[in-house]
Design brief:
By secondary structure, the protein is an all-beta fold. About 0% of the residues lie in helices and about 55% in strands.
């Protein structure tokens, strides 16, 4: 995708302090944005210990982006901002905002928001700049442009989009005065994990709570304040808390976990820990119920993939699998599961359920079919391929692809999906002089999207030197594992480049033997952004993209 660098002021979901206490800055941008959609960005700012006359923002957006509105919110009121713009070269437009209200600049906290309409699906890097003015002179600048002389460096943010597909199916729609309450019948033996996707038309008020139904004791409640920041109420003061902005019409993944052993309640939103506090839970861990509801007078919201787990696994496993339609941790049991694709509330002996005024709607949550798992066994004269998928509800067909060099794949067979069948097989005849062969399965979904299985290499030979190149996690912060396979021993050089093509790190330079190799790259000293890593041998090389998102 085309990368655009953009000067903007409203971006990231972390806090900064500069020049001791000159600026408090906390901003948020949604992580899951639909292509050509509308999204909202928020900044919480406070200017401290400086007598300035005005604060200036300047930013540049591609011409296919439109600023729909900009607002300034403070404790007592909200006002629309005037945004000036100027057409530039290179298909971009400059935007300018000035804040000269002495009340806001005198140490009070205020919020700036912008609603942006994207008429493109190009990912781009948002840079931004904040200038302090006294009269007509700039006295201090905060910028995302990194150099050794910039003491007031701000981290940029990556705006990226996801493809909608039919795997997400339907979502639960909570209209005004609607409610869903689940109470597990059996006691929770391990920790309790409640996870779900949520999309809010207009985040306001409270929307879920967990309580002891026998003692009528509320353990925690989640909602939003007037700034559309997440508002979490629990009985004890939080040990850690981060301001987290929730944009209207964007999807957010929630993990609410009560660790019985440590007696800690934690909230993760899009994998970010936003709340942690001590919690007192009565034993045995039973008689508790979870409710989601909509008491708003003006806006609906959607819930998808609501799951309640008796949880005894690493939470990282859930984070890695949150966008797949089906997954099952090995040491945990599922107490309640609803994907709403059947437009029906399922009753069970495992829980008591109550609901009122619920509806269903199409979901565009970032949920995808899991790639097929492929295994290949080699026999005399043929290779036997067996693959399995977790769900065929949105799958049209499978294409078996084969390559003799690991690069150029061609379809050798198409197999239609059979209702309720999850496991498939195919035998590929091979000639005696055929050396290395690579196989993969392309799963074609009903909406024409597709996903590949991992490639499987069989046979012996020296047809390709570098294979199976990947880095994980991706995006990462601040470390990622760069993994690849060498089909023969060779001198190997691994370099990291920024998007301008300048080398920023050399990970390895030397001899490596045949087999799989993994190297850890640490981006602690680099700014957020898109980077390229090159694995280079004397006669070949592989280049891949990765994203550092701090």
């Amino acid at each position: 995708m085309r990368l655009l660098r953009v000067i903007v002021l409203l971006l990231i979901a972390v806090s900064f302090s500069f020049g001791q206490t000159d600026l408090y800055f906390n901003a948020g941008v949604p992580k899951f944005i639909t292509k050509s959609g509308v999204f909202k960005i928020s900044n919480i700012l406070r200017v401290n210990n400086l007598n300035i006359d005005s604060l200036h923002y300047s930013y540049i957006l591609p011409d296919n982006y439109q600023v729909v509105s900009a607002n300034c919110n403070c404790a007592n009121n909200s006002a629309k901002l005037v945004v000036n713009k100027q057409q530039n070269d290179f298909n971009t437009t400059s935007y300018f905002i000035t804040i000269d209200d002495s009340t806001l600049l005198g140490g009070n906290t205020f919020q700036l928001t912008q609603t942006i309409k994207a008429n493109s699906d190009d990912d781009f890097l948002l840079d931004y700049q904040i200038d302090y003015f006294i009269a007509d002179s700039v006295v201090k600048t905060f910028s995302t442009f990194y150099d050794e002389f910039n003491e007031n460096y701000l981290e940029p943010s990556i705006i990226s989009y996801y493809n909608q597909n039919t795997a997400s199916g339907k979502a639960l729609k909570l209209k005004q005065n609607s409610m869903l309450r689940i109470e597990p019948e059996n006691k929770i033996e391990n920790s309790l994990l409640i996870e779900f996707w949520a999309n809010f038309e207009n985040p306001k008020g409270y929307f879920c709570q967990f309580e002891n139904s026998e003692l009528l004791d509320t353990v925690f409640t989640l909602g939003f304040d007037k700034y559309q920041l997440l508002n979490i109420k629990s009985k004890n003061f939080p040990d850690s808390f981060e301001e987290y902005f929730v944009s209207p019409e964007a999807w957010y993944h929630f993990n609410l976990i009560i660790d019985r052993k440590e007696k800690i309640f934690s909230v993760y939103v899009n994998d970010v820990l936003v709340h942690s506090s001590q919690i007192n839970i009565a034993e045995p861990f039973s008689g508790y119920r979870f409710s989601i509801f909509n008491n708003s007078n003006s806006a609906d919201y959607r819930i998808d993939r609501l799951k309640i787990w008796d949880f005894n696994d690493d939470l990282e496993w859930v984070k890695r699998n949150k966008s797949f339609d089906h997954y099952y941790p090995s040491n945990s049991s599922l107490v309640f599961n609803a994907d709403y694709d059947n437009s029906d509330i399922q009753e069970s002996e495992k829980y008591v359920i109550e609901y009122n005024n619920l509806d269903y709607t199409e979901s565009d949550a970032p949920i995808y079919n899991r790639a097929p798992e492929l295994n290949v066994n080699v026999y005399s004269g043929f290779s036997s391929l067996v693959w399995e998928t977790g769900n065929i509800a949105n799958v049209k067909l499978f294409q078996i692809e084969k390559s003799l060099n690991g690069n150029n794949f061609s379809v050798i067979k198409e197999i239609d999906v059979i209702e309720n069948k999850l496991k498939y097989s195919y035998d590929d005849l091979r000639s005696e002089d055929e050396g290395v062969a690579f196989y993969r399965i392309r799963q074609v979904n009903t909406d024409s999207t597709f996903i590949f299985s991992a490639e499987v290499k069989v046979g012996h030979g020296k047809l390709m030197l570098i294979s199976q190149v990947q880095n994980y996690p991706n995006p990462f912060n601040p470390q990622t594992n760069i993994s690849f396979e060498l089909l023969e021993a060779s001198e190997i050089e691994i370099n990291i480049y920024d998007i301008r093509g300048e080398r920023v790190s050399k990970v390895h330079d030397g001899y490596l033997g045949e087999g799989t190799h993994t190297f850890v790259f640490d981006g602690s000293n680099l700014p957020s952004g898109i980077y390229l890593y090159e694995i280079k041998a004397p006669l070949s090389s592989q280049v891949q993209k990765m994203i550092l998102a701090k």
